[in-house]
Protein backbone atom coordinates (compact mmCIF):
# COMPACT_ATOMS: atom_id res chain seq x y z
CA UNK A 1 0.00 0.00 0.00
CA UNK A 2 1.40 3.40 -0.99
CA UNK A 3 0.73 6.72 0.69
CA UNK A 4 -1.97 7.81 -1.79
CA UNK A 5 -4.04 4.67 -1.21
CA UNK A 6 -3.64 5.10 2.54
CA UNK A 7 -4.89 8.69 2.28
CA UNK A 8 -7.89 7.59 0.20
CA UNK A 9 -8.75 4.92 2.73
CA UNK A 10 -8.32 7.38 5.59
CA UNK A 11 -10.58 9.89 3.82
CA UNK A 12 -13.24 7.24 3.28
CA UNK A 13 -12.94 6.06 6.87
CA UNK A 14 -13.31 9.55 8.31
CA UNK A 15 -16.34 10.25 6.09
CA UNK A 16 -18.07 7.05 7.18
CA UNK A 17 -16.86 7.61 10.72
CA UNK A 18 -18.61 10.99 10.83
CA UNK A 19 -21.95 9.23 10.25
CA UNK A 20 -21.09 6.62 12.87
CA UNK A 21 -20.24 9.45 15.28
CA UNK A 22 -23.75 10.85 14.91
CA UNK A 23 -25.22 7.39 15.45
CA UNK A 24 -23.08 6.83 18.53
CA UNK A 25 -24.00 10.20 20.04
CA UNK A 26 -27.71 9.53 19.47
CA UNK A 27 -27.45 6.10 21.08
CA UNK A 28 -25.56 7.47 24.08
CA UNK A 29 -28.12 10.27 24.44
CA UNK A 30 -31.10 7.89 24.40
CA UNK A 31 -29.49 5.41 26.78
CA UNK A 32 -28.36 8.09 29.23
CA UNK A 33 -31.81 9.65 29.50
CA UNK A 34 -34.13 6.64 29.12
CA UNK A 35 -31.89 3.53 29.68
CA UNK A 36 -33.08 2.27 26.27
CA UNK A 37 -30.59 0.77 23.82
CA UNK A 38 -32.23 2.33 20.77
CA UNK A 39 -31.83 -0.43 18.20
CA UNK A 40 -34.50 1.08 15.85
CA UNK A 41 -32.28 4.12 15.28
CA UNK A 42 -31.07 2.54 12.02
CA UNK A 43 -34.62 2.48 10.66
CA UNK A 44 -34.76 6.26 10.94
CA UNK A 45 -31.62 6.42 8.79
CA UNK A 46 -33.33 4.39 6.07
CA UNK A 47 -36.68 6.17 6.46
CA UNK A 48 -35.06 9.60 6.13
CA UNK A 49 -33.14 8.73 2.97
CA UNK A 50 -35.94 6.79 1.28
CA UNK A 51 -38.58 9.38 2.17
CA UNK A 52 -36.43 12.05 0.52
CA UNK A 53 -35.99 9.80 -2.54
CA UNK A 54 -39.77 9.39 -2.78
CA UNK A 55 -40.28 13.16 -2.59
CA UNK A 56 -37.71 13.72 -5.33
CA UNK A 57 -39.59 11.19 -7.46
CA UNK A 58 -42.76 13.25 -7.00
CA UNK A 59 -44.65 10.62 -4.99
CA UNK A 60 -46.18 10.72 -1.53
CA UNK A 61 -43.98 8.64 0.81
CA UNK A 62 -45.86 6.00 2.73
CA UNK A 63 -44.04 7.08 5.87
CA UNK A 64 -46.53 9.95 5.97
CA UNK A 65 -49.35 7.41 6.28
CA UNK A 66 -47.46 5.78 9.16
CA UNK A 67 -47.12 9.19 10.81
CA UNK A 68 -50.88 9.79 10.51
CA UNK A 69 -51.75 6.37 11.95
CA UNK A 70 -49.36 6.63 14.91
CA UNK A 71 -50.47 10.20 15.66
CA UNK A 72 -54.12 9.13 15.59
CA UNK A 73 -53.45 6.20 17.95
CA UNK A 74 -51.47 8.41 20.35
CA UNK A 75 -54.20 11.08 20.28
CA UNK A 76 -56.87 8.46 20.99
CA UNK A 77 -54.92 7.01 23.94
CA UNK A 78 -54.27 10.46 25.45
CA UNK A 79 -57.91 11.48 24.93
CA UNK A 80 -59.22 8.37 26.68
CA UNK A 81 -56.81 8.98 29.56
CA UNK A 82 -57.99 12.60 29.84
CA UNK A 83 -61.65 11.52 29.88
CA UNK A 84 -60.98 8.94 32.60
CA UNK A 85 -59.24 11.55 34.73
CA UNK A 86 -62.30 13.84 34.35
CA UNK A 87 -60.05 16.87 34.55
CA UNK A 88 -61.55 20.38 34.64
CA UNK A 89 -61.60 22.04 31.25
CA UNK A 90 -61.84 18.70 29.46
CA UNK A 91 -62.86 20.14 26.04
CA UNK A 92 -59.84 22.43 26.02
CA UNK A 93 -57.50 19.56 26.96
CA UNK A 94 -58.96 17.33 24.25
CA UNK A 95 -58.50 20.10 21.70
CA UNK A 96 -54.90 20.52 22.84
CA UNK A 97 -54.26 16.77 22.47
CA UNK A 98 -55.65 16.75 18.94
CA UNK A 99 -53.66 19.85 18.01
CA UNK A 100 -50.44 18.50 19.52
CA UNK A 101 -50.60 15.17 17.74
CA UNK A 102 -52.20 16.42 14.53
CA UNK A 103 -50.12 19.52 13.79
CA UNK A 104 -47.17 17.86 12.09
CA UNK A 105 -49.19 15.31 10.05
CA UNK A 106 -51.45 18.16 8.89
CA UNK A 107 -48.60 20.51 7.95
CA UNK A 108 -46.63 17.83 6.12
CA UNK A 109 -49.82 16.58 4.44
CA UNK A 110 -50.57 20.07 3.13
CA UNK A 111 -47.04 20.24 1.77
CA UNK A 112 -47.43 16.87 0.05
CA UNK A 113 -50.78 17.93 -1.42
CA UNK A 114 -50.05 21.40 -2.73
CA UNK A 115 -46.28 21.63 -3.33
CA UNK A 116 -44.59 20.49 -6.59
CA UNK A 117 -42.50 17.85 -4.83
CA UNK A 118 -40.06 16.94 -7.61
CA UNK A 119 -39.40 20.61 -8.46
CA UNK A 120 -38.84 21.82 -4.91
CA UNK A 121 -35.42 23.12 -3.95
CA UNK A 122 -33.33 20.49 -2.17
CA UNK A 123 -33.43 22.25 1.25
CA UNK A 124 -37.25 22.30 1.13
CA UNK A 125 -37.35 18.62 0.15
CA UNK A 126 -35.08 17.79 3.07
CA UNK A 127 -37.22 19.88 5.43
CA UNK A 128 -40.40 18.13 4.30
CA UNK A 129 -38.77 14.70 4.68
CA UNK A 130 -37.68 15.59 8.22
CA UNK A 131 -41.18 16.86 9.04
CA UNK A 132 -42.50 13.41 8.13
CA UNK A 133 -39.83 11.19 9.72
CA UNK A 134 -38.71 13.04 12.87
CA UNK A 135 -42.16 13.08 14.60
CA UNK A 136 -42.15 9.29 14.38
CA UNK A 137 -39.48 9.27 17.11
CA UNK A 138 -41.55 10.68 19.99
CA UNK A 139 -44.59 8.74 18.76
CA UNK A 140 -42.61 5.49 18.96
CA UNK A 141 -41.58 6.40 22.50
CA UNK A 142 -45.15 7.29 23.46
CA UNK A 143 -46.66 4.08 22.13
CA UNK A 144 -43.92 1.53 22.78
CA UNK A 145 -41.79 2.70 25.69
CA UNK A 146 -43.50 5.30 27.84
CA UNK A 147 -45.72 2.91 29.79
CA UNK A 148 -42.77 0.62 30.59
CA UNK A 149 -40.16 3.34 31.10
CA UNK A 150 -39.36 2.14 34.62
CA UNK A 151 -38.82 -1.49 33.58
CA UNK A 152 -35.40 -3.17 33.59
CA UNK A 153 -32.84 -2.48 30.89
CA UNK A 154 -33.25 -6.03 29.60
CA UNK A 155 -37.02 -5.62 29.20
CA UNK A 156 -36.53 -2.29 27.42
CA UNK A 157 -33.99 -3.98 25.13
CA UNK A 158 -36.55 -6.65 24.22
CA UNK A 159 -39.11 -3.95 23.42
CA UNK A 160 -36.50 -2.12 21.32
CA UNK A 161 -35.82 -5.30 19.32
CA UNK A 162 -39.56 -5.74 18.73
CA UNK A 163 -39.91 -2.12 17.54
CA UNK A 164 -36.90 -2.62 15.26
CA UNK A 165 -38.46 -5.70 13.66
CA UNK A 166 -41.79 -3.92 13.14
CA UNK A 167 -40.19 -0.85 11.57
CA UNK A 168 -37.94 -3.04 9.43
CA UNK A 169 -40.94 -4.95 8.07
CA UNK A 170 -42.81 -1.71 7.46
CA UNK A 171 -39.78 -0.36 5.61
CA UNK A 172 -39.84 -3.35 3.26
CA UNK A 173 -43.59 -2.84 2.74
CA UNK A 174 -43.25 0.90 2.15
CA UNK A 175 -40.17 1.05 -0.07
CA UNK A 176 -39.72 -2.46 -1.46
CA UNK A 177 -36.49 -4.38 -1.78
CA UNK A 178 -34.97 -1.98 -4.34
CA UNK A 179 -32.58 0.65 -3.09
CA UNK A 180 -32.51 4.38 -3.84
CA UNK A 181 -29.86 7.03 -4.11
CA UNK A 182 -30.40 10.77 -3.99
CA UNK A 183 -28.46 13.49 -5.87
CA UNK A 184 -25.49 15.00 -4.02
CA UNK A 185 -25.87 18.34 -2.31
CA UNK A 186 -23.04 19.69 -4.50
CA UNK A 187 -21.41 18.24 -7.59
CA UNK A 188 -17.66 17.89 -8.02
CA UNK A 189 -14.90 17.79 -5.49
CA UNK A 190 -11.95 19.58 -3.95
CA UNK A 191 -8.45 18.76 -5.17
CA UNK A 192 -5.88 18.52 -2.39
CA UNK A 193 -2.67 17.59 -4.15
CA UNK A 194 -3.07 14.06 -5.43
CA UNK A 195 -6.21 13.62 -3.31
CA UNK A 196 -9.69 14.54 -4.56
CA UNK A 197 -12.30 15.04 -1.84
CA UNK A 198 -15.94 14.99 -3.06
CA UNK A 199 -18.00 17.94 -1.94
CA UNK A 200 -20.57 15.52 -0.52
CA UNK A 201 -17.92 14.17 1.87
CA UNK A 202 -17.23 17.74 2.98
CA UNK A 203 -20.97 18.23 3.49
CA UNK A 204 -21.07 15.13 5.69
CA UNK A 205 -18.12 16.27 7.79
CA UNK A 206 -19.41 19.85 8.04
CA UNK A 207 -22.98 18.96 8.94
CA UNK A 208 -21.80 16.33 11.44
CA UNK A 209 -19.58 18.93 13.13
CA UNK A 210 -22.43 21.47 13.10
CA UNK A 211 -24.83 18.97 14.68
CA UNK A 212 -22.32 18.14 17.40
CA UNK A 213 -21.86 21.84 18.18
CA UNK A 214 -25.63 22.39 18.13
CA UNK A 215 -26.13 19.49 20.56
CA UNK A 216 -23.44 20.90 22.86
CA UNK A 217 -25.14 24.30 22.86
CA UNK A 218 -28.54 22.71 23.36
CA UNK A 219 -27.41 20.77 26.43
CA UNK A 220 -25.35 23.61 27.83
CA UNK A 221 -27.49 26.68 27.15
CA UNK A 222 -31.18 25.70 26.96
CA UNK A 223 -33.67 24.80 29.68
CA UNK A 224 -34.79 21.64 27.88
CA UNK A 225 -31.20 20.53 27.36
CA UNK A 226 -30.41 21.00 31.04
CA UNK A 227 -33.57 19.08 31.91
CA UNK A 228 -32.38 16.17 29.78
CA UNK A 229 -28.97 16.29 31.47
CA UNK A 230 -30.63 16.24 34.88
CA UNK A 231 -32.78 13.27 33.86
CA UNK A 232 -29.71 11.44 32.60
CA UNK A 233 -27.87 12.01 35.89
CA UNK A 234 -30.72 11.11 38.24
CA UNK A 235 -34.22 10.23 36.99
CA UNK A 236 -35.79 10.24 40.46
CA UNK A 237 -34.14 13.52 41.42
CA UNK A 238 -35.25 15.12 38.15
CA UNK A 239 -38.83 13.99 38.76
CA UNK A 240 -38.73 15.43 42.30
CA UNK A 241 -37.55 18.74 40.85
CA UNK A 242 -40.60 18.85 38.58
CA UNK A 243 -39.02 17.61 35.34
CA UNK A 244 -41.52 15.27 33.62
CA UNK A 245 -39.60 12.18 32.56
CA UNK A 246 -42.24 11.48 29.88
CA UNK A 247 -41.42 14.78 28.19
CA UNK A 248 -37.69 14.03 28.54
CA UNK A 249 -38.16 10.67 26.83
CA UNK A 250 -40.17 12.11 23.94
CA UNK A 251 -37.71 14.95 23.42
CA UNK A 252 -34.79 12.51 23.49
CA UNK A 253 -36.42 10.29 20.87
CA UNK A 254 -37.18 13.34 18.72
CA UNK A 255 -33.50 14.34 18.80
CA UNK A 256 -32.41 10.77 18.01
CA UNK A 257 -34.89 10.58 15.11
CA UNK A 258 -33.61 13.91 13.79
CA UNK A 259 -29.99 12.73 13.93
CA UNK A 260 -30.85 9.38 12.34
CA UNK A 261 -33.00 10.78 9.54
CA UNK A 262 -30.53 13.54 8.69
CA UNK A 263 -27.67 11.04 8.71
CA UNK A 264 -29.54 8.95 6.16
CA UNK A 265 -30.11 12.02 4.00
CA UNK A 266 -26.41 12.89 4.21
CA UNK A 267 -25.15 9.43 3.25
CA UNK A 268 -27.72 8.61 0.53
CA UNK A 269 -25.87 10.51 -2.24
CA UNK A 270 -22.72 8.39 -1.77
CA UNK A 271 -24.26 4.95 -1.28
CA UNK A 272 -27.46 3.18 -2.25
CA UNK A 273 -29.87 2.99 0.67
CA UNK A 274 -32.12 -0.05 1.10
CA UNK A 275 -34.87 -0.56 3.63
CA UNK A 276 -32.46 -2.47 5.90
CA UNK A 277 -29.30 -0.42 5.32
CA UNK A 278 -29.80 1.63 8.44
CA UNK A 279 -29.49 -1.38 10.73
CA UNK A 280 -25.81 -1.91 9.86
CA UNK A 281 -25.10 1.83 10.09
CA UNK A 282 -26.74 1.99 13.52
CA UNK A 283 -24.94 -1.17 14.63
CA UNK A 284 -21.56 0.33 13.79
CA UNK A 285 -22.55 3.45 15.68
CA UNK A 286 -23.45 1.15 18.56
CA UNK A 287 -19.91 -0.28 18.48
CA UNK A 288 -18.61 3.27 18.83
CA UNK A 289 -21.05 3.94 21.66
CA UNK A 290 -19.87 0.79 23.46
CA UNK A 291 -16.30 2.05 23.18
CA UNK A 292 -17.60 5.08 25.07
CA UNK A 293 -19.30 2.80 27.61
CA UNK A 294 -22.69 4.26 26.55
CA UNK A 295 -22.09 7.23 28.86
CA UNK A 296 -19.23 9.33 27.45
CA UNK A 297 -19.96 11.47 24.40
CA UNK A 298 -16.29 12.23 23.55
CA UNK A 299 -15.23 8.59 23.89
CA UNK A 300 -18.22 7.48 21.81
CA UNK A 301 -17.27 9.96 19.08
CA UNK A 302 -13.64 8.82 19.06
CA UNK A 303 -14.73 5.19 19.06
CA UNK A 304 -17.09 5.76 16.11
CA UNK A 305 -14.33 7.47 14.12
CA UNK A 306 -12.06 4.52 14.88
CA UNK A 307 -14.78 2.17 13.61
CA UNK A 308 -14.99 4.10 10.33
CA UNK A 309 -11.22 4.02 9.79
CA UNK A 310 -10.98 0.34 10.78
CA UNK A 311 -13.79 -0.53 8.35
CA UNK A 312 -12.11 1.37 5.52
CA UNK A 313 -8.72 -0.32 5.92
CA UNK A 314 -10.36 -3.70 6.51
CA UNK A 315 -12.20 -3.39 3.19
CA UNK A 316 -8.82 -2.96 1.47
CA UNK A 317 -7.02 -5.84 3.15
CA UNK A 318 -9.91 -8.28 3.64
CA UNK A 319 -13.12 -6.98 2.07
CA UNK A 320 -15.00 -10.23 2.70
CA UNK A 321 -14.34 -9.99 6.43
CA UNK A 322 -14.60 -6.24 7.03
CA UNK A 323 -17.86 -6.54 8.98
CA UNK A 324 -16.43 -9.37 11.06
CA UNK A 325 -13.33 -7.31 11.86
CA UNK A 326 -15.37 -4.26 12.84
CA UNK A 327 -17.70 -6.14 15.15
CA UNK A 328 -14.89 -8.25 16.61
CA UNK A 329 -13.23 -5.03 17.78
CA UNK A 330 -15.91 -4.75 20.44
CA UNK A 331 -14.81 -7.94 22.21
CA UNK A 332 -11.61 -6.63 23.87
CA UNK A 333 -13.49 -3.52 25.03
CA UNK A 334 -16.23 -5.61 26.63
CA UNK A 335 -13.61 -7.91 28.19
CA UNK A 336 -11.69 -4.96 29.61
CA UNK A 337 -14.86 -3.38 31.02
CA UNK A 338 -15.92 -6.72 32.51
CA UNK A 339 -12.58 -7.13 34.29
CA UNK A 340 -12.66 -3.52 35.46
CA UNK A 341 -16.19 -3.89 36.82
CA UNK A 342 -15.20 -7.06 38.65
CA UNK A 343 -12.25 -5.25 40.21
CA UNK A 344 -14.51 -2.39 41.35
CA UNK A 345 -16.96 -4.88 42.88
CA UNK A 346 -14.12 -6.58 44.77
CA UNK A 347 -12.98 -3.23 46.13
CA UNK A 348 -16.48 -2.42 47.37
CA UNK A 349 -16.74 -5.82 49.05
Give a quick set of tags describing it:
349 residues; 77% helix
The chain-level mean pLDDT equals 84
Distance between the termini: 52 Å
Helix percent reads: over 70%
Along the chain, the helix and strand elements come as HHHHHHHEEHHHHHHHH
Strand content: under 5%
Largest sheet, in brief, is:
2 strands, antiparallel
Task: Write up this protein.
The chain is mainly alpha-helical and 349 residues long. The chain has one domain. The chain is 77% helix and 2% strand. It has a two-stranded antiparallel sheet. Strand 1 and strand 2 form a beta hairpin. Helix 1 runs antiparallel to helix 13 and helix 2 crosses helix 5. It is globular. The termini are far apart.
List the helices and strands and how they pair.
Blueprint: H1 3-34, H2 41-56, H3 62-85, H4 90-114, H5 122-133, H6 136-145, H7 153-175, E1 189-192, E2 195-198, H8 199-221, H9 223-233, H10 235-240, H11 245-267, H12 277-291, H13 297-317, H14 322-328, H15 330-348
Antiparallel strand pairs: 1-2
Helix pairs in contact: 1-8, 1-9, 1-11, 1-12, 1-13, 2-5, 2-7, 2-11, 2-12, 3-4, 3-6, 5-11, 6-11, 8-9, 8-11, 9-11, 12-13, 13-14
Short account of what is shown:
This protein has helices at 3-34, 41-56, 62-85, 90-114, 122-133, 136-145, 153-175, 199-221, 223-233, 235-240, 245-267, 277-291, 297-317, 322-328, 330-348; strands spanning 189-192, 195-198.
